[in-house]
Amino acid sequence: MVSFRTERKHPPYAGYKYMFVSSIATSFFLLGIAFLYAQYGSFNIDYLKKVMNGTVLDKIAIVMLILPLAMKCGVVPMHMWIPDTYSEAPAPISSMVKLGSLICLYGLFRIAFTFGLSRAQVSYELGMLFILFGVLSMFVGVTQALIQKDVKRLMAFHAVSQVGYMLLGVGVGLSVIKSGDASFAIYGKIAIIGGLFHVVNNALYKGLLFLTSGIIVRHYKTRDLNIMHGLAHYDKFTALVFMIAALAISGIPPLNGFVSKLIIYESVFHYNPLLTLIAIFVSVLTLASFMKVFYSAFLGMPPERRPVEQPILVKCSMIILSIVIIVIGLFPQGIIKLLIEPAVNVLSTF
Amino acid sequence: MHEFELEYLNWMPLLWVCIFLIIMVLFIIIGKIFFRNDFDEMSEQGLPFYSGTSDKMLQLITASNLYWGFKHTLQSYFDGLNRLFISDIGDFIQWFIIIVAIMLLIITGALM
Q1: Nearest-neighbour CA in chain A from B35: distance (Å)
Q2: B92 in contact with A at a CB cutoff of 8 Å?
Q3: Does B97 reach chain A within 8 Å, measured CB to CB?
Q4: Is residue A13 in a domain?
Q5: Using an 8 Å Cβ cutoff, are A256 and A201 in contact?
Q6: Residue A182 DSSP code
């Protein structure tokens, strides 16, 4: 699906790269499973958690299981397949690939919590690695995004940056979960809630952004922001929807991105204020780069031709996503109590 | 297990929305009373003012022009990133092996 547009030069290459990266990741993942099966004779995660002895082979297996999932999430420095794949795939496919990455992120957290809290006792090390990868992903992703002139590559780099927030929140929770003091109760669990809540929010506004970017590219027939100008003169609906998604990803109240970012900021601040400072700075840069997209694509002189009217189903899907983004921003309690908190309880039970 | 208290969030969106609406209403009222009302968007007042050139395309500030200072100041950082991540599959494998090695050293405690 990534190389759907085979008549062009780059999509087949992007598809080949995605296939290659996925194959490497899957091979390593299978190797990790094989290491555990060879030792304990089972594929059952719960059983493995109970019988794991914390041998060197166990720890190698944990690395082999975690790293491919991190690669599939686009964690820096293994992120370069993301801009190539997301930018060449058709817009709806980019959303689906993004969703696949977020599912891998949940797999990553599941493996890290389950095996990190087993007798292997590596939760602190994994937490620190998550924080390191999170900060790297946030900063490298957003600074790379800021200088892009290709609208879809810009959004792809933001996908990398947003994964950093999730890793940061969950990493902080993971690193204090076994500390024995009250840190986990005070802020660790809340940091994990923030990280997981950000996964849900990210799926919503990122999906909306990819859909709007598809409309922008369809109208201008190019992804080059330098050539675009003034679409809002004719298509105010897309401009409004894009603005909602852009403000949500930048963490502007009262949208959903703000809520999860606020939870991450407040909890991570207890752990290390410098990390919060970096996260806030990254949010500012995120807003700056989306202002650039909004200015280039929607403001300025009217375009030479009027855009094609969007099908009603496309509009409906964008309206639904926008409403969900606003409603979650205004009433986050329900989704946290119903979805996020039970997931965190399951993850952190040991 | 500690119960997550949502009050910790310190986020009262409805209050903020109400404050925002009140400020908007006040702004509109003050604007109606004190702001000039001779602006006509359909006249020449509504046209953008460009100086320096009559070429319409040159009047447009493009995406590459934005944050020029930021890019210029951090040029060495971006050059470094471009050298590190060239988006080539060989480069990708190289990074994967480096991260495997680092993670193994940290997780197995070989660095301790």
Answers
A1: 25
A2: yes
A3: no
A4: no
A5: yes
A6: T
By C-alpha distance, which of A175, A270, A342, A197 is closest to B3? A342
Q: What is the pTM of this model?
A: 0.88
Provide the token pair at A102.
């977020």
Q: Has residue A329 been placed in a domain?
A: yes
Helix (H), strand (E) counts: chain B = 5, 0
Per-residue pLDDT of chain B (112 residues; tens, 9 = 90+): 344 455 556 677 888 889 989 999 999 999 888 888 788 878 877 776 766 666 766 667 788 888 888 889 999 999 998 888 887 788 888 888 899 898 888 888 766 5
Q: Which amino acid is it at A30?
A: L
Q: Does the complex come out with an ipTM higher than 0.85?
A: no
State the total domains in chain A. Answer: 1
Closest residue, chain B, to A56 (C-alpha): B108
**H or E segment to which residue B53 belongs:** none
Residue A23 counted as domain residue: no
- List the domain range (segments joined by +) for residue A236: 91-348
Q: A81 lies in a domain?
A: no
Which residues of chain A does B14 touch, with a Cβ-Cβ cutoff of 8 Å? 330
A259 and B CB contact within 8 Å: yes
H or E segment to which residue A237 belongs: helix A236-249
